[in-house]
Amino acid sequence: MFESFLGNEELKREISARLGSGSFPHAVSFSGEEGTGCDFFARLVASEYLEDKNGLVLRNVHPDFISVEGSGSSGQVSVSDVRDALYEMNKASVMTDGRRVLHIREAENLNAYSANALLKMMEEPPEGVVFILTVRRQDDLMPTIRSRAVEYRIRPLDKKICAEEALKRIPELGMEKAERLSELFGGRLGLVLRAAEDQKFSFCVLTAEKLLRSAYAGSRYGVMASLASAENRDQISLILRTAISGLAQDIDNDPEDAGRAGFLYECFTDTLEQNEAYVNARTAAAALAARISMR
Fold first, then answer.
1. pTM of the predicted model, to two decimals?
2. φ and ψ of 150, to 5 deg
3. What is the pLDDT of residues 111-157, one digit of tens each?
4. What are the extents of the domains in the chain?
């Protein structure tokens, strides 16, 4: 079970045992940074729970599997989408013996209204219904929702295994580059593959590396120059997201000495929110550079 998902052997054993014994929780939350395959694993779990032998869940065409995610510039999960999904969950199952799965992607984007709508059913779920939430960090999940779900963490791959798998999938990448990308992304295979195949993303990755070096050094000019090299607002967001991903790895690797990384994580996250709220890009970059250089 779960042979197609690399790593996280202990987690796979526990989930397999719960599914095999019929004691799977009615609600679980899987947390993992971008590139760890968190959503893919959630679908694999749903597929096993629904006894899906034809891969319908992975193709998002299984009638007893509903997936909801945020939309629009804010990325919030709307209350109307949640209510529509809950309505479907209240129906009788089509293919399985009463089993249905509701998957909420990036559940940290539930707002107060959509979270409350979901909470009502999570407290008294219909027979056979399982809620699977995916989230970047468990701390970002609303406490009322978080308290109703059993928490699991999807961890990145060992960096060597990640590099070897990337090279296996993209032989022309070369081991040197595969190892460098694996190191940068801390074993998050999804981001390594994306960086290898997408030239624009690769540019943003390299720029994010420069941005992080400048930020750790407190270089005001370096921070502004890195962001100024972006062609548009979307690239700025991608550079910031990549840098934030690297900082999250630093925090996870050494949580007891995460002062500078935690501060930069907060700075970059604030700037990303400003960028996506269409604050003037130069103004936001200047404010970020000033904030970083002052500490």
1. 0.75
2. -80, 130
3. 999 999 999 899 988 889 999 999 988 888 899 999 999 999 999 99
4. 9-153, 198-293
What is the maximum alpha-carbon separation in the chain? 62
Helices (H) and strands (E) in the chain, counts: 13, 5
Contact between 109 and 75 under an 8 Å Cβ cutoff? The reply is yes
DSSP 77: B
What is the separation of C-alpha 95 from the centre of its chain, rounded to a whole number of angstroms? 30
When computed from its CA atoms, the radius of gyration of the chain, rounded to whole angstroms, is: 20
Domain 9-153 belongs to what topology?
Answer: Rossmann fold (3.40.50)
Separation between Cα atoms, residue 89 and residue 92, nearest integer Å: 8
Dist CA 46 CA 86 (whole Å)? 17
The whole-angstrom separation of Cα 3 and Cα 245 is: 27
Average pLDDT over residues 251-268: 84
CB distance 31 to 136 below 8 Å:
yes
Residue 55 has a CB neighbour count (10 Å cut-off) of 11
- Token pair listed for 78: 């709307």
For residue 110, give the 3-state DSSP assignment. strand
Place of tokens 């907060």: 266
Which residue spans within 138-289 are E strands per DSSP?
150-153
Contact 78, 71 (CB under 8 A): yes
Residue 126 C-alpha from the chain's centroid: 28
The answer to whether residues 36 and 156 touch, using CB atoms and an 8 Å cutoff, is yes
Tokens of 48: 């096993």
* Residue in the block written with tokens 């059993």: 150
Residue 269, CB half-sphere, CA atoms under 13 Å: how many?
12
